[in-house]
Design a protein that fits this description.
Length: 94
């Protein structure tokens, strides 16, 4: 019976030590959780910024394309080589 009493006291001592140590580790876990949340917020903010940049770039390209189409008329829709009769003859082998 003396052996089981020492086992019980050892188990209770270990559990007591874990309970006392728990607040420190939960504080560390809380810090780690906050750091992960902050990192996730930064990733999401970077993704939103990149999306905005892509949208702005697409808008600028669309504006340039519309401006060149309107200023040059239908000729801006066709490539230069197709407008050049000698270039077309060279392509066809004449």
């Amino acid at each position: 019976m003396g052996g089981s009493a020492s086992i019980i006291s050892t188990v209770l001592g270990t559990v007591g030590g874990l309970i006392q140590h728990k607040p420190d580790s939960s504080g560390d876990m809380e810090k780690e959780r906050k750091a992960r949340e902050e990192q996730q917020r930064k990733k999401e903010a970077d993704a939103r910024r990149r999306d905005r940049e892509k949208i702005n770039e697409a808008r600028n390209l669309e504006k340039k394309r519309n401006a060149s189409t309107l200023s040059n008329g239908a000729a801006s829709l066709v490539e230069e080589e197709e407008n050049n009769p000698t270039g077309l003859k060279n392509k066809l082998g004449e």
